[in-house]
Write a structure and sequence with these properties.
The protein has ten helices and 14 strands. By secondary structure, the protein is an alpha/beta fold. The two termini are 33 Å apart. Bound molecules: S-adenosylmethionine.
């Protein structure tokens, strides 16, 4: 559901609050089999992808989201070989996963058009990741894949849209239960849980659903300028409680050994991200 006012794109953040982007140019627009897709150019954020009127990724601030969704679980794990990405058709999570020495990254995206159009019109987001031989692409509903596959993964990253439309099922207890079965020992699942100030129920519902399945459930935060309303919550669940309490020098060692540069992630940011303000902790019940 896109809404234009002359050269403005208005994206709702909650039912009562909307943000506007000045558009320099509409780059591509299509109604895919699943959603309304638009890519437009803006002076403030570079190229922006929106699905069903909701901003998904922007060229200028995507690193704050993708680095935290990927490097926190991968450096906490320390030896992840097989990674599963659910959603994430823009390729940003895939790009960051493949900076690690992983054996494979399986990306399960419902809407092939998102992949094709982003590769063409937002190539800087995937940056060649779809051509990496370690990338296994599956075009399918992530829920069906998690229910049917017999493979196991060290890390599962749910890079979904919000819990409306096709993304809704990726927040269900049934889906989380299937993910739990697909997680190898010592594995971690992380999820996109919106901005708690505007979307408090995303934290509460995901907390309740994960809590019944995993020994250790929590949230960590990142600050993505496009997702105004303060901090964005990322869900964390594992049966290994030690994974999110690693000493900073262990994370520093792993980060240094990986040998790549980041714009948001550091081992200190990683540990600090688990320190939650009380208004967020209060939602975990
Ligand atoms: N960072 C983003 C945000 O704003 O939350 C998410 C980006 S990513 C583009 C989200 C992707 O999830 C979309 O490409 C969408 O097609 C995909 N998706 C939604 N529901 C899905 C499902 N049930 N199975 C697999 N992929 C799904």
């Amino acid at each position: 559901m896109k809404r234009f006012k002359e050269r403005l794109f208005e994206g709702p953040l909650s039912q009562e609050y909307t943000q506007s982007f000045e558009i320099s140019r509409v780059v591509f627009e299509k109604k895919t089999d699943f959603q309304d897709l638009i890519i437009f150019e803006t002076p403030a954020f570079g190229r922006v992808l929106a699905l069903d009127g909701i901003v998904q990724v922007t060229e200028k601030d995507e690193f704050a989201y993708h680095e935290m969704l990927v490097h926190v679980p991968l450096f906490a794990h320390g030896n992840a070989a097989r990674v599963l990405i659910i959603g994430g058709g823009d390729g940003g999570v895939l790009r960051e996963v493949l900076r690690h020495d992983v054996e494979s990254a399986t990306l399960v995206e419902l809407d092939k058009s998102v992949i094709d159009i982003c590769r063409r019109h937002l190539p800087m987001i995937s940056n060649g990741a779809f051509d990496d031989p370690r990338c296994h692409l599956v075009v399918a509903n992530g829920c069906a894949f998690a229910a049917e596959t017999d493979r196991t993964f060290d890390i599962i990253i749910v890079d979904s849209t919000d819990p409306v439309g096709p993304g809704e099922a990726l927040f269900s207890e049934a889906f989380y239960g299937d993910c739990q079965k697909r997680l190898a020992a010592g594995g971690v699942i992380v999820t996109q849980n919106g901005v708690p100030f505007f979307q408090p129920l995303e934290v509460t519902n995901t907390y309740r659903r994960l809590k019944s399945l995993f020994a250790d459930v929590g949230f960590y935060v990142t600050a993505v300028p496009t997702y105004v309303g303060g901090l964005m919550a990322l869900g964390w669940a594992s049966n290994d409680e030690s994974l999110r309490m690693l000493p900073v020098d262990v994370l520093c060692q792993r980060f240094a050994a990986a040998g790549f540069e980041t714009g948001y992630y550091t081992p200190q940011v990683h540990l600090g991200a688990f320190a939650l303000p009380p208004f967020v902790t209060a939602l975990m019940q």
